[in-house]
Amino acid sequence: MKVFVNHSVLAMVSGAALLGALAWPNCAVADDEALPLFLTASMSLEHDSNFSRTPKANSETVRSAGLSAGLNKAHGRQNYTLFGQLTKNQYNRYGDLLDNDGKSVNAMFTTEIASNWKAAVGYRFNENLNAIQDNSNSADQRVIRNIRRYRDVNGELRYGLAGRFTVVGTLDRNSLSYSAQRGQNAEQHSSGFRVQYNPSDLLSFGLGPRWVETDYPNRVRNRTVRDRNLDFTTNWRVTGISLLTGRVSLGTTRNSDEPGTSDAVTGALGWVYTPRGQVTYSVNWSRATDTDRLQEISSGGRFPEVLGSVVEDRITDTLAFGARYNASAKVAVGANYRYVRFDVSRARSNAALNTTSNRSSESNSQAISLDVSYQPIRSVGLGCNWQRYKQTPDQLRLEYKGYSTGCNASFTID
């Protein structure tokens, strides 16, 4: 679930001047989620050479101004985390149609109970302009005002905090709606449990079932999709400089109006490697069915990570590489590459799928990006980035390519 506007891009000169004028002499800035209490103002400017994501490119320049606040407070055996953000997005070319206000709220409460129990409850809300490339496979209907709203409530109960075995139960209920694509509106609830084996503090293995049911109230056929999954998970801190996390799921999907079922192997794998204090490398892979919006609450109490969030019945494979170099306490440089493969051959129930089309049932997108950040004082952050991207066509996606550039500025009080 992403806000369409990339907020890690270039700030307007006037915005930077304003933020500089607001500078607070004794403010500290850090990762927002690590601050006990903070308030951040930000401004950004981005130019996209193919904003419309169509074969014939239409460029756009987007200005954004945001205000975010939050807290991360521990009190005894409880921890309270709250984050909220408001963003005003303005468009030079499509302003009358697309100007919008983005909203985001994340909240989590965790508590330890007795000597061996831990509970967590989370809430998440996002409202923003849907990604242009996900609006329609028709070039005439790409640039439309399509507001996307996502709500999620989730909970986790864990027994066994220090022993070799841990039992974890999870519940999740979420909804996804679109102002211009009501046929894709969905309500989903899931439940599951797993048994986790912890041979050491640095290594754990988990195994357990998970059930997911997704309802599409505006569909004519196959309004209900049911998934049964068996999850294998692992977390392994190989050394102090290397961390490996993984999940493999064996899943079976049944559509309410289809006689048979479809099987899939999905999952995710992540590796973070920091051979030196200044350089960090990362590799992430995921394979997801689009009805299975798996979310997990980590033992560290961070917000849920969404592994799959699109709503057509297809398989999506993602591979991403990243590297970040902290040249000094003030300057950092990053590089990233992302490859996504879409397989729409499973989309039997999607009315938008044109089975007579000459296009392939598979496509891919690629993106490469570079970014640099500069923190002249602890309360002020500046950054710029560049990205080049391309998409091949399939029965649901248009072919396009382009690039984007931008910068941002932020000022934090904590």
Offer a concise description of the structure.
By secondary structure, the chain is mainly β. It has helices at residues 13-21, 95-98; strands spanning 37-48, 60-75, 78-91, 100-113, 117-129, 147-159, 165-178, 186-200, 203-215, 224-239, 242-255, 261-273, 279-289, 315-326, 331-343, 362-377, 380-391, 400-413.
Topology:
Elements: H1 13-21, E1 37-48, E2 60-75, E3 78-91, H2 95-98, E4 100-113, E5 117-129, E6 147-159, E7 165-178, E8 186-200, E9 203-215, E10 224-239, E11 242-255, E12 261-273, E13 279-289, E14 315-326, E15 331-343, E16 362-377, E17 380-391, E18 400-413
Antiparallel strand pairs: 1-2, 1-18, 2-3, 3-4, 4-5, 5-6, 6-7, 7-8, 8-9, 9-10, 10-11, 11-12, 12-13, 13-14, 14-15, 15-16, 16-17, 17-18
Name its key features.
mainly beta; 59% strand; disordered N terminus
